[in-house]
Design a protein that fits this description.
mainly beta, single chain, 1 helix, four-stranded antiparallel sheet
Length: 403
Amino acid sequence: DSKTVTTNACGTASGEFTGPTGRLLGAWRLGASPNGSAQVRVEEYKRPTFEATFQELKEPLRLNKPAKLTGEVKYYFGLPVVNGTVKWRATRQPVYPWWWDWYCWWRPRPSQGQTVATGTAKLQEDGTFLVAFTPEADERLAGGDVTYRYAVTADVTDEGGETRSATKSFRLGFVSVEAGFSAKTDFFDEGRPGAFSVSRTDLNGTPRPGKGSWRLVELRQPEKTFPPADLPLPNPKASEKGDAYTTPGDALRPRWAPNYAYAAVLRSWEDGAEKGRGELSHGEDGDADVALQALPAGAYRLHYETVDDFGASYKTTKEFVVGGHKARLALPCLFLAERGSVKVGEKARFLALSGLPDQPMVFEIWRNGELAQRRTLTSGKDATLVEVPVTEADRGGFSVRLS
């Protein structure tokens, strides 16, 4: 046997393997020092004669309601496949909201897909087949923002023993729509109007027109700013009555791993005074804009609510920050860039602050891996809004760090 291996400039190797017969059929393992390996399976190429596909869903699906999917099998020359067998299986995997990682230390988070249904189907005269099952889920989880990713795979074998597969993936929840927020900046300026774009889609990302409403509130900040390790944990189980396995220490963060995230802290703050409300009409692209009035520096929460086609209510929130030269937030550290891209001649603006009293902070600018500028800031004394003029020398980008 012979082998040829070449390595390109990126360190990626490729090889060609041949044997005495020119065919190395079976399973192979390729190893490279020190720790590289890859599994390879070599088979004789057989040109497929037909394909199997799933048609687009004609009606929205819901949890705990019968679901029907139509598959289609056709020869490549156009005629339907009418003789053969169809075996299918449906798997389910939970999809957690973006903030779930803050709670997963006490909530189980399975990562493997679970087979929830299997069966066989009959090929019709037009080459179609029907897969029917009920995607079941516990109704008690309806308020937990957990959805499920389903994958239905059908293996079709024709009279000659050739097998082709088709897979259809879709996401289901107790509500059939959701919404996402986007803004042109990562923080807003005090005294200037701001805006959010709200995108209304189904759970598979397809835009959905409809009505919605929003409500803006100011967040109630704690009087004292806690260091990261002293921030209270979001632990609902600690407050359950009759839990004999809970101790006061369960509500404390480990000092070696505080897992600080400013968004998690903002989410834990309660609603304060209402600052505005309004109605939204989402067009065919699913988008609608929320125009915000000029607000003083602080932390705010935008509440959004809409109703899906089945009458179920969907609610979500978005916490955000309004910054200024003397902004005060009860956060141990906050560092935000107004924009990720700035033109030459403009100013890059950063919100750099700490709610800890007289806290020294180091603001650094790095270019091409080298320290270009360093300045010391003190909370409560220096401005929290830092502006950096962008020049020709900054083309290609630079990195900024706050310690």
